[in-house]
Write a structure and sequence with these properties.
The protein has about 210 residues and is an alpha/beta fold. The chain has a single domain (about 20-185), classed as 2-Layer Sandwich (Nucleotidyltransferase, domain 5), CATH 3.30.420.10. About 35% of the residues lie in helices and about 15% in strands. The protein is built from 6 helices and 5 strands, in the order ββαβααββααα. Strands 3-2-1-4-5 form a 5-stranded mixed β-sheet, with helices on both faces. The longest helix has 24 residues, at about 140-160. It is globular.
């Protein structure tokens, strides 16, 4: 069986410009932090396999993480806790995590490419929001892979402490097993209390 072929991603939006790609992982989860990454790739970077992390297998993501970390000019990975998410909401927490990741870059970008349609100005650096940008630009795809792999690793470690919720498999996403475990065992300090943790059932009165 041939591996799935992806259309080639663009290297950058503007030539002769140092661009950082940003993306987050875990926005729709019931538990765990939201992670974000920022990546600046060299202008001559090429990788046919690089794509939106959701389109790749876990094995491919982990292999690409090693390659990205080796060849990137610089990268940063950061997170916002469930408590921060509950306090400021998931959108603001996702943007805050991206800003934290950008803070870790050792090279100052001249332009920021952001996956999605919402962002907040970072240190007066121009930015462009791109819906499904992780399937269009290599730097965003690289950021999506780092954010996803770092978060998955974090949730697998949490699974050892709280094995009943299946986080090694569902990574905190709202699967049936995860919701049933919440009903049976209650919530942990890692659950997002501002989210609907248990689906409400319609009550039919006769």
């Amino acid at each position: 069986m041939k591996p799935k072929a992806f259309p080639p991603l663009a290297c950058c939006m503007y030539s002769n410009c140092t661009e950082a790609g940003c993306d987050e992982a875990g926005r729709g989860c019931l538990a765990g932090p939201v992670f974000a990454a920022a990546v600046i790739l060299p202008p001559d970077f090429k990788c046919a396999k690089l794509n939106d992390s959701k389109q790749l297998s876990e094995k491919d993501r982990n292999e690409l993480r090693i390659l990205i970390e080796k060849h990137a000019l610089c990268f940063g990975v950061a997170s916002c806790s469930p408590q921060e998410i509950d306090e400021i909401n998931i959108l603001r927490a996702s943007i805050k995590a991206m800003h934290k990741a950008l803070d870790k870059l050792t090279v100052r970008p001249q332009h920021i490419l952001v996956d999605g349609n919402r962002f907040r100005l970072y240190e007066n650096i121009p930015h462009t929001c791109i819906i499904k940008g992780d399937g269009k630009y290599m730097s965003i795809a690289a950021a999506s892979i780092l954010a996803k792999t770092y978060r998955d690793e974090y949730m697998k470690n949490l699974h050892n402490e709280f094995p009943d919720y299946g986080w090694a498999q569902n990574k905190g996403y709202p699967t049936a097993l995860h919701r049933e475990a919440i009903k049976k065992y209650g919530i942990t300090p890692h659950h997002r209390k501002s989210f609907t943790l248990v689906e409400k059932q319609l009550k039919i009165e006769f």
